[in-house]
Design brief:
Blueprint: H1 17-20, H2 24-27, H3 29-49, H4 63-71, H5 75-88, H6 91-104, H7 107-112, H8 129-166, E1 171-176, E2 179-185, H9 186-205, E3 210-211, H10 221-226, H11 232-243, E4 247-248, H12 259-287, E5 291-293, H13 312-334, H14 345-350, H15 354-372, E6 374-376, H16 378-386, H17 393-402, H18 408-416, H19 424-433, H20 438-445
Parallel strand pairs: 3-4
Antiparallel strand pairs: 1-2, 5-6
Length: about 450
C-alpha cells in the first residue's frame, strides 16, 4: 500500500501526522542525511580556514556555494545519496561521495584559480563515520528541542501560570490520600506544576549537547600521522564548538560516551512525568465536577451514552507520555553501554530518537488543547468546601496550642472522628465549650473552609 496517514504503522506518521510533521526536519532519514552533509561541509571549510597547506588556495568566496549544498538540500539530493549507498552499502561513505560529486561542479572555477582536484580528498579527512554521526545527531536533537519541543513546554508552563493568576483567589478543598485536607487555592495548585516545569527546564539547560570527534578510535590517529605538528585536540574543540555549536567530549572510544545524551533523555523523562501528573490531577478535577469542558458541535463522547463529555485530551496526553518515557528510559540506559571500542547497537537505537520526542510533542499539544476546554465550576468547588467543615480542625487546634490549651490535638480528634457529620454549627458549638477568652473564641469563629487557605 502507498504510505499515508491511514497506512502508516506508527501513529506519529499516521493518526497524529499533523501534530508531528515539523519533526521531519530533524529526525527523518532525509534530515539525518542533511545533517551529515552539513557536518562534512563545515569540517571541510574549517580545514580550509586553518588552513591546511593543500587547502590554503581554496577560494573563500566559494564557501557560500559549499554551504548551499546543505542549506538547500533537496529530496532529490537525498535520493542521490541513497543511490550511492545502494552501491557502497555504507551510509556515511555515500554522503562523502555525494559531496565529492557536488565539488566536481566547482572544478572549472577551482582550476582557474590554481586549485587541484585533489582538494576533494579532504572531504571526510581523517574521520570515521561516528565523527559525523555523533555530531550530526546531537546537532539535530539540539535544534529539534530548541525550535520545536522546548517552546511547547514553555507554552504549557505559561498557560499554567496564567491559570494560577486567574484562579489565585479560588479557595478549594485539598485532598491528601483522597480525603478532605487543609484547604488550598486552585491557582496555587496549578502554580505548583508551572514551577516544576520551570525548574526542570532550568536543569535541562545545564546538560551539554556534546559530540564525539576524534578519529577512528578517539585518538586522532590519522590526523596526527598526516600533520604531527598540529594540536588536533584543540582544533577539534574549535571546530565542534564554533562551527557546530556543540561541546566536544575529550576522551572517547570510536563513539560518543552518550552520558550527556542519557542525562538529556532523563531530563525529558522528568518533564514528561510532571505533565502526566498534571494530566491525572486535571482529569480528577473534571471527575469531581470542579471543571466542566467546552462542548464542540458534532463531537461524540460515547457510542452508547449521549450525555458524555470525556476528558480525552488528558488521557491522550498521558498515554503518549508513557510511550515517550519508556523509550527515553531505554535510550538513556542503553546508549552509554557499548562493547569495547564500539558495537553497532547505538546506531540502531539512535535512529529512534525522534519517536519519543514525537510522542512528547503530541502529548503536550493534547494537554494544551484540554486546558483550553476547561470551564471553572466555582459553585461545585465552593459546595465541596462547605460540606467539609472538619478541615478547620487543624486551624483550631493549632491556635489552642499557641494558647497553651491542654491536649488540643486530642480534643479536636475526639470531635472530628466520631463518625458524625461536622458542620458549621457543630464547630461553632464546640468553640463555645472551650475554656479560652472571648478574643480567642472570636478568632476561632472567623475561620472557615473558604478562608483557611494559608499563604
Amino acid at each position: 500500500m502507498e504510505l499515508n496517514s491511514l497506512t502508516a504503522i506508527s501513529p506519529i506518521d499516521g493518526r497524529y501526522r499533523s501534530k508531528t510533521e515539523s519533526l521531519d526536519n530533524y529526525f527523518s532519514e532525509f534530515a539525518l542525511i542533511r545533517y551529515r552533509v552539513r557536518v562534512e561541509i563545515e569540517y571541510f571549510i574549517f580545514l580550509c580556514e586553518l588552513p591546511l597547506p593543500q587547502l590554503s588556495s581554496f577560494p573563500t568566496e566559494l564557501f557560500p556555494q559549499l554551504r548551499n549544498i546543505y542549506e538547500n538540500f533537496s529530496l532529490s539530493d537525498a535520493q542521490r545519496v541513497k543511490e550511492i549507498e545502494s552501491v557502497t552499502n555504507h551510509d556515511v561513505k555515500a554522503v562523502e561521495y555525494f559531496i565529492k560529486e557536488k565539488l566536481k561542479t566547482m572544478y572549472p572555477t577551482l582550476q582557474a584559480k590554481g586549485v587541484s582536484e585533489g582538494v576533494s580528498e579532504f572531504i571526510h579527512f581523517g574521520l570515521t563515520s561516528q565523527d559525523i554521526n555523533n555530531t550530526a545527531t546531537p546537532l539535530s536533537i539540539k535544534e529539534a528541542l530548541t525550535q520545536v519541543l522546548l517552546p511547547l513546554v514553555k507554552q504549557l508552563q505559561e498557560q499554567l501560570d496564567r491559570f494560577a493568576d486567574e484562579w489565585s483567589d479560588v479557595a478549594m478543598l485539598a485532598k491528601t490520600h483522597g480525603q478532605p485536607a487543609s484547604p488550598t487555592r486552585l491557582g496555587k495548585e496549578l502554580k505548583v506544576f508551572a514551577y516544576r516545569l520551570q525548574q526542570q527546564q532550568q536543569l535541562l539547560a545545564t546538560v551539554p549537547f556534546s559530540a564525539k570527534f576524534g578519529g577512528a578510535t578517539g585518538n586522532f590517529n590519522a590526523h596526527h600521522v598526516a600533520y604531527p605538528g598540529m594540536d588536533w585536540r584543540s582544533l577539534a574543540d574549535t571546530f565542534v564548538g564554533k562551527y557546530l555549536g556543540l561541546e566536544r567530549e575529550q576522551w572517547t572510544t570510536q563513539i560518543s560516551n552518550y552520558d550527556n545524551l542519557g542525562a538529556l533523555f532523563d531530563a525529558l523523562r522528568r518533564i514528561c512525568t510532571i505533565i502526566a501528573d498534571l494530566d491525572r490531577d486535571i482529569w480528577q478535577y473534571i471527575s469531581m465536577g470542579y471543571f466542566r469542558q467546552k462542548v464542540k458541535a458534532g463531537e461524540v463522547g460515547s457510542s452508547a451514552m449521549p450525555h458524555k463529555v470525556n476528558p480525552i485530551d488528558f488521557e491522550n496526553s498521558e498515554g503518549n507520555l508513557g510511550v515517550a518515557n519508556a523509550l527515553f528510559a531505554h535510550l538513556a540506559q542503553k546508549l552509554p553501554i557499548s562493547r569495547l571500542q564500539r558495537d553497532l547497537t547505538d546506531s540502531t537505537v539512535l535512529r529512534n530518537v525522534g519517536v519519543p520526542v514525537g510522542h512528547m510533542v503530541i502529548a503536550i499539544q493534547s494537554t494544551l488543547k484540554g486546558l483550553g476546554k476547561l470551564l471553572l465550576n466555582a459553585d461545585a468547588i465552593a459546595s465541596d468546601l462547605q460540606q467539609n467543615w472538619a478541615v478547620v480542625a487543624e486551624a483550631i487546634q493549632t491556635i489552642l496550642r499557641r494558647e497553651g490549651y491542654p491536649n488540643p490535638y486530642e480534643t479536636l480528634k475526639q470531635l472530628t472522628r466520631t463518625g458524625a457529620a461536622i458542620s458549621h454549627e457543630s464547630i461553632a458549638a464546640f468553640i463555645e465549650t472551650l475554656n479560652v477568652g472571648e478574643e480567642v473564641k472570636q478568632e476561632l469563629r472567623s475561620i472557615t473552609p473558604s478562608n483557611y487557605t494559608g499563604i
